[in-house]
Amino acid sequence: MKNNKINVKKLIKQSDKYLELARWEKAEKILRQVIKLDQKNPEAYYLLGDALCKQERFIESINALSKADKLLPNNPRILHLLGWTHFMNGNSDIGRKLMNKAHYLFPEDIQTLCDLAVLENKEGNENQALIFINKALEIDPENEMAEEVYQAILYFRELRSKLKNKVN
């Protein structure tokens, strides 16, 4: 039993390195091994959900993340990624609900704020997108990701304005 726990920890660490290197398939393979060894490991399901999301296999990712959420309810990281995956799979309402819950539980998380801003901007809710991204920049004015999202919001604002003027 003790060897099993050591193996699981080593494999999770190894899969995490593959995720950092953007080797999603390799990480997925290792994480599926981990789940065979320990079916109640929320971290393994979370990381598997991440690897699957990055491969744009959203339904499978949602399934893995839902298992992680059942094993570790109301974890902001899990809720955030589950929300993002729903959004990427075309369900903005569920994505928004889950990411807002993650934001409520961990209001200082810049990644969640940025992703909420992206979701709202894509849905045409520019003012709400600006609220989220300004909060992220207030927390960390030097954050490159937040600055990039902010610039994208401004770009799409200008584009929408130009299109509106053409129509009128």
Describe this structure in words.
The chain is mainly alpha-helical. It has a domain at 1-75: Tetratricopeptide repeat domain (Serine Threonine Protein Phosphatase 5, Tetratricopeptide repeat, Alpha Horseshoe), CATH 1.25.40.10. It is 82% helix and 0% strand. It has 9 helices and no strands. Helix 1 (2-20) packs parallel to helix 3. It is elongated, with a radius of gyration of 18 Å. The mean pLDDT is 95.
Which structural category fits the helices and strands?
A: mainly alpha
CATH T-level fold name of one domain: Serine Threonine Protein Phosphatase 5, Tetratricopeptide repeat
CATH class of one domain: Mainly Alpha
The N- to C-terminal Cα distance equals: 70 Å
Order of helices and strands: HHHHHHHHH
Query: Mind telling me the C-alpha Rg?
Result: 18 Å
CATH superfamily of one domain: Tetratricopeptide repeat domain
- How many helices does DSSP assign? 9
Detail the topology: elements first, then pairings.
Elements (H helix, E strand, L loop, with lengths): L1 H19 L3 H14 L4 H13 L3 H14 L4 H13 L3 H14 L4 H13 L3 H14 L4 H24 L1
Helix pairs in contact: 1-2, 1-3, 2-3, 3-4, 3-5, 4-5, 5-6, 6-7, 7-8, 7-9, 8-9
Explain briefly what this protein structure is:
The protein is built from nine helices and no strands.
Properties at a glance:
elongated, 0% strand, mainly alpha, 82% helix, 168 residues, Serine Threonine Protein Phosphatase 5, Tetratricopeptide repeat
